[in-house]
Amino acid sequence: MHSLSLNDEKNSAVYPDEFGSTDGDNVAITVALGDGIGPEITHATLRILSAAGARIRPEFIEIGEQVYLAGHSAGITPEAWQSLRQTKVFLKGPVTTPSGSGYKSLNVTIRKTLGLYANVRPCISYSPYVHSLHPTMDVVIIRENEEDLYAGIEHRQTDEVYQCLKLITRPGCEKIIRYAFEYARSHGRQKVTCMVKDNIMKMTDGLFYKVFQEIGTDYPDIEQDRYIIDIGSARLATQPERFDVIVTTNLYGDIISDIAAEISGSIGLAGSANIGEHVAMFEAIHGSAPDIAGKGVANPSGLILAAVMMLVHLRQADVAEKVHNAWLKTIEDGIHTADLKGTQTEILVNTSQFAAAVIARLGAEPQKFKPVRYQNAAPVSNANIVSYQAKPLAKKVIVGVDVFIHQHELSADQLAERLHKLTTEAVELQMITNRGVKVWPGGFPETFCTDHWRCRFMVKTDHGQLHYSDVIRLLANISSDYFDVIKTENLCSFDGEAGFTLGQGQ
Ligand code: NAD
Fold first, then answer.
1. Domain that holds residue 421
2. Statement to judge: residues 238 and 270 lie in one domain
3. How far away, in angstroms, is 316 Cα from ligand 1 center?
4. Does 240 lie in the same domain as 271?
5. Secondary structure (3-state) at 462
6. Are 414 and 356 in the same domain?
7. How far is the C-alpha of 371 from the C-alpha of 284, rounded, in Å?
8. Is 286 a pocket residue for ligand 1 (Cβ < 6 Å)?
9. Pocket test for ligand 1, best of 40, 97, 286 (most atoms within 8 A of CB)
């Protein structure tokens, strides 16, 4: 962690200003320059913030490629964590994740470690000054940031099969969905659309949509609808005007927010906020762009607009408004970096010249775009969101067990025959599936089978309550016959409702 030194040749060339003369009035924020184009766009952004009078005191940390290569597998040092936990506000340049399985994504690590549950990405068209197929597009994507397939729990289970666990939790759904409604309300937005794939993933995506419907009743003033993610993404790409605020799970949100940013004009334009109960992080949505790094031509707009969101978060609405309006005026004046070059470009500038053009317009308002007004803006209050009330515990009863077996010698019928002989007085074999499709009883020869078999045992009707000791006895029998058991999943009912899905074809 260090303060930018004015004697530092690299820094002083692009960042000659100090923030405020009396540091005591300024809010400490943590800043990471990042990799690739990161230092160029972060210096440009900081110059603008300084010139606009942002009441901030940047504390610099090292993250990213060099930190990874120095042996920190998540790309961040203990000192950097300390700064983040103290300042609670992070302006972050993009980082390069070295390829190789030994490195964990820094972004995912920061989001999850600091509980940054909401990823907010406004995707807005700046037509006609930036070419866009969708001139009136103005969509905010609110993506769940901690769960889903990004839990990072992956296993190789057999020679042929790899698994990634998709975890969706009720507290996680409640937080992100309430955040989306609160965001819509506090930002004058009319509609929230939920995007899921609950026709296939009935339990996980089904929970997300169920919670959306439940929480939606608290927001009758906000229009609500739902799309299956596949058609929803297609409509977003072709008719983004249909959407206002979209709330979705982690992976879908990751994908559709890049699509939305790209079709709005350029990936270089969008900023994002990662909001948690204690800490918030602000960054451009693009990466470190190694192909143009060091050339000084990158568009700093994504990080500038992320910094505007940070200023609103810091309740410096006056500065946020000044920077955003100066940026809009720069764009409509046709002062563009190379990625925005088009028929409306009057002057093609590099990163540093773009920052200078924004600084020259501080205090001016756009004439063609509608000026932004942040005077009444406030960050979404966490108070309404994080107070998750645990529900009364359900009556949970084990009614069966799925035993996953790795084997490639036996057919489904042969496997069933062997397993029949190994069952106990408590359970009976009900079904075998392969990749989720029922292959016994009554499978089709056309069904392709791998070496990964899910064998479902259910409690016998004349047996009383099933206990985990019954499962252990069953497993002991199965393993005594030299089967390679990969794992088990208990089949439970919760207040009488099945907590598991049927096999396909069951
Ligand atoms: P990228 O976003 O860095 O680049 C994609 C394309 O967009 C490139 O052609 C690039 O030149 C262009 N581009 C991106 N930002 C631009 C800007 N501000 N101005 C002008 N052009 C811009 O994506 P990538 O190449 O897939 O990833 C490069 C590295 O960034 C990878 O290591 C990746 O892991 C990392 N990454 C980091 C973040 C982050 O830190 N938040 C996000 C995405 C990717």
1. 396-498
2. no
3. 29
4. no
5. coil
6. no
7. 22
8. yes
9. 286
Verify whether ligand 1 is closer than 6 Å to residue 301 (CB atom): no
Q: Are 175 and 118 in a shared domain?
A: no
For residue 387, tell me if it sits in a domain.
no
Domain co-membership, 409 together with 297: no
Q: Let me know whether 229 and 152 are in one domain.
A: yes
The per-residue pLDDT string of the chain (506 residues; one tens digit each, 9 = 90 and over) reads 333 332 333 443 344 346 655 556 799 999 999 999 999 999 999 999 999 999 999 999 999 888 888 888 888 998 999 999 999 999 999 998 877 667 778 888 899 899 999 999 999 999 999 988 899 999 999 999 999 998 889 999 999 999 999 999 999 999 999 999 999 998 889 999 999 999 999 999 999 999 999 999 999 999 999 999 999 999 999 999 999 999 999 999 999 998 998 888 878 899 999 999 999 999 999 999 999 999 999 999 999 999 999 999 999 999 999 999 999 999 999 999 999 998 899 999 999 999 999 999 999 999 999 999 987 766 777 777 766 778 899 999 999 999 999 999 999 999 999 999 999 999 999 999 999 999 999 989 899 999 999 999 999 999 988 999 999 999 999 999 999 999 999 999 999 999 999 887 77
Ligand 1 atom 12: residue of nearest CA: 289
Q: Of 184, 215, 247, which residue sits at a domain end?
A: 247
CB 378 within 8 A of CB 315: yes
Q: Is residue 379 part of a domain?
A: no
- Ligand 1 centroid–CA 289 distance in Å is 4
- 478's enclosing H/E stretch is helix 468-480
CA of 303 to the centre of ligand 1 (A): 12
Q: Domain with 65 in it: what CATH number?
A: 3.40.718.10
Distance 56 CA to ligand 1 centre (A): 27
User: How many structural domains comprise the chain?
Assistant: 3
CA of 132 from ligand 1 middle (Å) equals 20
Q: Is the CB of 292 under 6 A from ligand 1?
A: yes
From residue 463, how far is each of 31, 134, 220, 431 by CA, in Å? 63, 63, 49, 19
Q: Are 274 and 111 in contact (CB under 8 A)?
A: yes
Question: Domain holding 423: CATH number?
Answer: 3.30.70.1570
The alpha-carbon radius of gyration of the chain (Å, integer) is: 27
Handedness of CA 42, 101, 275, 135 (dihedral sign): positive
Is 4 in the same domain as 112? yes
User: How many whole angstroms separate alpha carbon 31 and alpha carbon 4?
Assistant: 10
Q: What is the pTM of this model?
A: 0.89
- Verify that 9 and 89 share a domain, yes or no: yes
Domain boundary among 221, 247, 273: 247
Measured distance CA(20)–CA(26) in Å, rounded: 7
Three-state SS for 374? Answer: coil
In a domain, 416, yes or no: yes
User: Residue 253 domain-assigned?
Assistant: no
